[in-house]
DNA sequence: TTGAAAGCGCTAACAA
DNA sequence: TTGTTAGCGCTTTCAA
């Protein structure tokens, strides 16, 4: 049996109220008494029971993280950022993986609320849950911060990476280094893919060159690497890579890696004959040969920032807010410099 | 304010005890009464407060996972396996990332115990904590299962992948497909590297060929890819890759990827001129060109199995046990078949 | 500056 | 089959 506040009170010859006071330091206690209590605490190696505390205070010193997947390096880094920040503030973390299922996301959030978590971070929330208004009442109960995902006209708190900006810069760089005809690779359905496609379209129109949009399956899972590779090899008979089109920009690094693999197989030299730029800057992008140029989303910072916001809400109350995190073009070896 | 058992009792016109009984179904309740209570529960949308429950039952329906890192794809898959299994059994998960720090590991475990978690899984525990006897008393308080890590003569519960077996098979395959002189790549210090080195040494002696052991820095982090690449390029002036040595076996897929990158840069054709086999079967191994042959550790299964064991302990009491998970040689494109 | 006592929401003896 | 009651370990009024 663990030692309780009662044991400490007896040992120190005071009431449990007094012990509680020295633990929390929220009421005056005579210096001498405090010392006696502190000694008793040390002697008995007393740790206040957080469960009992939570029951009365409605505070658990824990937060919940909801994330679509954890085998995806992208999310993993966000979680890592959150975890570090939370631990530094001595918060514990509940983790729930939804596999991108909207129902599972709702269940996760509800379970967290039941558990009295002090706050919730949802990474890449399902768009349908954003639109259904599910979260609108939730935030009256417990603060919630979202990391990326659909946020147009949604009056909730977000940390969002400035994808527009990064993507535009990548495109500009490609153009500046002599590329005119640029292939765009995207996955099937996602707010972020649409966003990038729009930018791509406008840009291509602007410089008066040819569009080529390649849509591949399974945008965010491992398979997308292989899928992209095959797609590119397929179209390589139709359009001349390195001549008709001399560059490619992808919606994420997995797709870019697939493109790189295709070039390797087709004997097209990157970056001499063909340039490739990815997006995200997951660690994979440093492991390829040549190393991928990409746009850094700074996932760790996304995580840290979301945690920081959440803790502010926990302390000072919730208020919808959107924070934009800058992205940065990282030039490595897969494109001209 | 959330609805409590009291509200339900009033609504149904019974005592809270009766409500508790129908919730838990552990004592007889008249059919008719039960129905009334159930209706009240539904009507008020009552959810029992798990905190109050935990306080009296000393059970939280949660487990703690301690893991060195989460940006490492290897651990990530183990955690994923645990999470799935736990969620299927409607357990929630606390996650703690130690960054391989022994003190942090101890803190994590202690915090979990304070929180009354029902069980703990420690992935790749720090050897010094295993040896110091820290866990010996812990397991009297709460069941703990370890995934891999140092386990010689340690009388605790482990799920261990059979690395010996898988590594030996890889070596045999290399030899069977005509390779005699095989390079061995390892990281600096780890039980698992030593184990593999011993097997390698014996094997090489047995077939009467030349040893070549390459030790690279930062065994388990991203940098090891680049470090390995550089090391291989370095030694390539000293020993002729593809002639003196025609194959390479690495302690993990990151190192193998580095080796692959080196070959790419040196213009050595894999697998035509040089064979490479990695270890672990992280998803990266499917993303390289050529795809890596490797030894599957089945991390997901390691995770699932450890969760399964833990739940058994939670139900039926703890008892030290070691479970071996088989590894499997996966032949892809980076070695002769 | 201190203590007694109520209560957080629930479970489980015990009694009826 | 049901209800009364005493906790679980803590915080926080209220009174002294």
TrEMBL record, chains A, B:
Gene3D superfamilies: 3.40.50.2300, lambda repressor-like DNA-binding domains. Coiled coil: none annotated. It comes from Caloramator proteoclasticus DSM 10124. SMART domains: HTH_LACI. Keywords: DNA-binding, Transcription, Transcription regulation. The keyword Nucleotidyltransferase does not apply. One of its GO terms (molecular function) is DNA-binding transcription factor activity. This is Transcriptional regulator, LacI family.
């Amino acid at each position: 049996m663990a030692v309780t506040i009662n044991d400490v009170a007896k040992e120190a010859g005071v009431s449990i109220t007094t012990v509680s006071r020295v633990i929390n330091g929220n009421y005056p206690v005579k210096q001498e008494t405090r010392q006696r209590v502190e000694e008793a605490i040390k002697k008995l190696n007393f740790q206040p029971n957080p469960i009992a505390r939570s029951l009365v205070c409605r505070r658990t010193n824990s937060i919940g993280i909801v994330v679509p997947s954890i085998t995806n390096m992208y999310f993993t880094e966000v979680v890592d950022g959150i975890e570090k920040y939370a631990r530094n503030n001595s918060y514990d973390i509940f983790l729930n993986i939804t596999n991108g299922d909207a129902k599972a996301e709702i269940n996760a959030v509800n379970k967290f609320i039941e558990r009295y978590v002090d706050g919730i971070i949802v990474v890449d929330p399902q768009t349908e849950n954003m639109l259904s208004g599910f979260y609108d009442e939730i935030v009256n109960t417990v603060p919630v911060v979202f990391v990326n995902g659909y946020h147009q006209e949604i009056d909730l708190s977000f940390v969002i990476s400035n994808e527009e900006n990064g993507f535009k810069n990548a495109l500009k760089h490609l153009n500046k280094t002599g590329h005119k005809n640029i292939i765009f690779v995207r996955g099937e359905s996602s707010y972020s893919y649409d966003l990038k496609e729009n930018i791509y379209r406008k840009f291509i129109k602007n410089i008066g060159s040819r569009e080529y949009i390649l849509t591949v399956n399974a945008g965010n899972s491992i398979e997308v690497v292989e899928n992209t590779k095959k797609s590119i090899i397929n179209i390589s008979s139709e359009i001349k890579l390195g001549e008709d089109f001399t560059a490619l920009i992808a919606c994420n690094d997995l797709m870019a890696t697939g493109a790189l693999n295709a070039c390797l197989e087709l004997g097209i030299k990157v970056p001499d004959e063909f340039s490739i730029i990815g997006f995200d800057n997951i660690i994979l992008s440093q492991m390829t040969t040549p190393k991928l140029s990409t746009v850094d989303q700074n996932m760790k910072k996304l995580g840290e920032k979301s945690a920081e916001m959440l803790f502010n809400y926990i302390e000072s109350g919730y208020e919808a807010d959107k924070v934009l995190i800058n992205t940065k073009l990282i030039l490595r070896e897969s494109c001209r410099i």
